[in-house]
Amino acid sequence: MSGNPRAGARGAGFTLIEAMVVIAIISVLAAIAVPVYERYTAVARAQDVAEDFHAAISAVADAMSGAQAGQATLIALGNTQGVPAAAPASGSGVPVLSDRLMDPAAFATTGGASPINFAYIGSSGTTFTVPAYCGEVDVVGEGPKAPATATGAWINPGITRSVYLSVGVGRTCGNDAPLGQDIINAIVANGSSAPLPVADSTGHTVSPCLSGVTACYAEVGSNGSITP
Q1: Cα–Cα distance between 48 and 42 in angstroms, integer?
Q2: Contact 158, 140 (CB under 8 A)
Q3: pLDDT tens digit string along 206-222?
Q4: What's this model's pTM, rounded to 2 decimal places?
Q5: Among residues 132, 107, 111, which one has the least CA distance to residue 120?
Q6: CA–CA distance from 2 to each of 5, 11, 57, 171 (Å)?
């Protein structure tokens, strides 16, 4: 009962060497875990972009079928990156592809991203566009027909031409090159684009989705055919 209390106190704690060993083990585990987690989140973002692109292709194909039955469809609004989305114009309805969904990979854009980055940008025209942001999906369709007025990508009754889709990948993701390649891999893996040039039913060539490009492409014909 009259032993040295200091000896008991030393026995109940950790020595400096023991504490250093514990810290070293934690550091090693963190060094392993952090890159694994970063790789996991990058792959997850790439898959999100690929799913957005695939959803756009499916939405266009469905709208093409609806157009044959006389239905007009607003696929994607003509939002401006960095500018808050406005409500669709009266009589235009709600776009099939949400105008509130944010681009999951915009932060990786060469030169930096805007504070607000939409996943889908719609426009009218007769050719592909090159997205400005990593992960941005562009849909190029027709313009509105009265009484609708909302700008964006429309598919109207009687459409006779293709709708063009593209997504920012690869070099567009210059702030995160591995993510840019991950997006390419995910898009090719789910069949939304091809690693080689593909010709559509009218002989138009859709560019390949491969390492080094800035965008991957797909085309939906007026008869609902999808390339690739």
Answers
A1: 10
A2: no
A3: 999 999 999 999 999 99
A4: 0.84
A5: 132
A6: 8, 17, 83, 76
